[in-house]
User: What shape does this take?
Amino acid sequence: MSFTKTTEQPSNYEHLEKMSINEVLTHINTEDKTVPQAVEKAIPQIEALITQIVAKLKNGGRLFYIGAGTSGRLGVVDASECPPTFGVSHDMVIGLIAGGDSAIRKAVEFAEDSDNQGWKDLKEHQISKKDVVIGIAASGTTPYVIGALQECNKNNIVTGCITCNEASPLDITAKYPIVVTVGPEFVTGSSRMKAGTAQKLVLNMISTATMIQLERVKGNKMVDMQLSNNKLVDRGTRMIMEELNIERQQAAKLLEKYGSVRNAINNYGAQ
Assistant: This one.
């Protein structure tokens, strides 16, 4: 089935090299403004996939992101931020990128072109029916990602995707596809721009909504965040002060004693 890659269509702007810096920035910003509206149209698809993720994670499953290039890096970033932000284990949300971890910093040539390596990478993590796998590819044609999802489907593993091309092979392969149609990029084909922004926004939604459903947020606060630096210790102290209406010194002692904002708040009355 043929389809048109809207992410590869010519830019709406000509002669970029003749523009002033201000013109370049203004036009990029004009294009960027369209991305949240495109994401909004995909909310029903995003909700359907998150519902599946929450159900699996509540039963001990894991969430995998798998992608190549910019898409893979975005998945790795979102996965790596879940433990410090929500206090979950590092193996609850896992990001895989074609070419391995070295590809996070430096492109690995042709890594995305293998249609069986993605499944091999998933099997190294003992992937099972308890898990969910989300393929991320702006083009919707990346063999590394499509091949992985095809094998997941054969093994009754829930599959989702984040792509920017409707009716692409990835859109058709995923059981719970998310398609955010952002149109042509400012620089023709540079899908790290609007497409990358769209993917980041969707990933924010997926991980944040999932963790809220898993009760990793109290009120509007990250009560399970890891206290891994002074900034976060200060933030945690202020959370306890606000929640319990106590002075900083007392809040700091509670946080030091109990090790997390949640535990400090829950154990306040038991002192």
